[in-house]
Amino acid sequence: MIEVKKLHSRRWKEYRDLRLEALKSDPIAFSSSFEEEKIFSDEEWKRRINNVLFAISNDKPVGMIGYIINNKNKTKHIANIFGVYVKKEYRRQGIGKKLFDIALKFIQKNVNVFKINLGVNSELKAAIELYKKHGFKIVGRLKKELLVDGKFYDELMMERIL
In what order do the strands lie in the sheet with 60-69? Predict the structure, then answer.
């Protein structure tokens, strides 16, 4: 059974390992790279884990979704979702949907949030469909936003108004 929850910061190494696996196995899915993040300090990983929900199977993280609620006066009504990943062997089991369902509940607990943004590589059709099923709409396209292994990729900007 899959449980979705936050992990204590003392489990930062598990987060680091999952994130680095994601960056290595699906480089076109993220704007960060394995090379950039593998050199993060322990303190950076401990800080970053606070903004992530994890899909847990047998007490091991097998998926994740990150979110941040803006804290600036003019944008505190906006949340951003990022870093969505499910290990390959756990895909097509509804884990991405479950991560999204729970992340949206966490975000909506903040009464100031009226909009959620995310960006997705235009070639990641399954991810785009998942986001659409959760009420996100494509509102723009950033051309040649990512350059991975000599190839350019467009990024779709998606939003959901609450």
Answer: 3-5, 52-57, 60-69, 78-86, 115-121, 151-161, 137-148
pLDDT at residue number 159? 98
Task: State how beta strands 115-121 and 78-86 pair.
Answer: parallel
What is the tens place of the pLDDT at every residue in 37-47? 999 999 999 99
* Domain 3-161: top CATH class: alpha beta
Determine the straight-line distance between the first and last CA of the chain, rounded to whole angstroms: 30
Buried b (16+ CB within 10 A) or exposed e, 73-109: eeeeebbbbbbbbbbeeeeeeebbebbbebbbeebee
Reported pTM: 0.94
- By the 10 Å C-beta count (0-12 exposed, 13-18 middle, 19+ buried), 112 is classed as exposed
**Comparing C-alpha atoms, which of 70, 54, 68, 72 is closest to residue 17?**
54
124 Rama class: left (phi>0) / alpha (psi -120 to 50) / beta: beta
* Cβ atoms < 10 Å from Cβ of 116: 24
Structure tokens at 52: 């992530």
Annotated domain spans of the chain: 3-161
